[in-house]
Specification:
single chain; mainly beta; 5-stranded mixed beta barrel
Length: about 180
């Protein structure tokens, strides 16, 4: 079981959980998956966020809804310390109330031509706190659920659920400088 993110397992990449910014379209970041050449091995690789637009009429998809879908292969995890949401002109940081980092459930796609290995975040209906700002967010996989997701040990419907109320803390991220004193 992989209860904690152990840096020595993945020495070639930065193993820290970082903020997931939904406005960083096309960005690259670390994902954790089963090695397709040796399914006994977990690996961390860099992947691009979003599907190959060549196969979807020029559109790159970054998200995929969980409802009514099975994910029988290519599951992966995106480590995150928080995720960001936007409502109008305001941007917000969403963290776990208990301060723990978490993973976003995702699926990866192999590299094709000049398009690198990529991933899409799986979404669920927003929980009550996030619902005030937007309708959906990434499916949260807790550290205790890592192997259940990666090893297909639990049905998707049991893992890809809307989190209960009071699990998140939400605070505004100031995007413009705020004047805190008067200049004379």
């Amino acid at each position: 079981m992989l209860p904690l993110f152990v840096p020595c397992m993945f020495q070639s990449m930065d193993s820290k959980a970082t903020p997931f910014d939904s406005e960083a379209l096309g960005s690259r970041r670390a994902i954790i998956r089963r090695n397709p050449d040796d399914m006994q091995e977990l690996e961390m690789i860099e992947a691009a966020w979003g599907s190959n637009p060549r196969f979807s009429d020029g559109v790159r998809y970054e998200f995929i809804r969980s409802e009514g879908r099975d994910f029988p292969r290519n599951r992966c995890l995106v480590p995150a310390s928080e995720f960001h949401i936007r409502n109008g002109e305001k941007k917000f940081r969403v963290t776990m109330e208990d301060g723990n980092f978490f993973y976003l459930a995702a699926i990866w796609e192999p590299a094709m031509g000049d398009w690198p290995v990529s991933y899409r975040i799986i979404t669920v209906d927003a929980n009550p706190e996030v619902m005030r700002y937007q309708e959906r967010h990434g499916a949260i996989i807790h550290r205790r659920q890592v192997m259940q997701w990666l090893d297909y040990k639990m049905p998707e419907a049991d893992l890809l659920v809307t989190p209960p109320a009071h699990i998140f803390s939400i605070e505004e991220i100031l995007t413009k400088p705020v004047q805190i004193s008067l200049a004379l």
